[in-house]
């Protein structure tokens, strides 16, 4: 039997998109299994009781991602 995953969303930082069924792809600051909070990117249902797979990033990782995104010439793609 799979272990129960617990989470506490400390802050919803922003929505990236909203699907027709109401699920939102969000950047949140979340604690998983009572560990230190991390930045988290995934889709959530409207009441945050279900989610898709996603990624978590430390502060250092999200700052590096910010630098990478700032340096990309998006018109190239």
TrEMBL record:
From what superkingdom does this record's organism come? Bacteria
Biological processes, Gene Ontology terms: regulation of DNA-templated transcription
The UniProt record lists the Transcriptional coactivator p15 (PC4) C-terminal domain at: 21-68
Q: Listed GO molecular functions?
A: DNA binding
InterPro entries from the entry?
PC4-like, PC4_C
Q: What is this protein called?
A: Transcriptional coactivator p15 (PC4) C-terminal domain-containing protein
- Its source organism is Dialister succinatiphilus YIT 11850
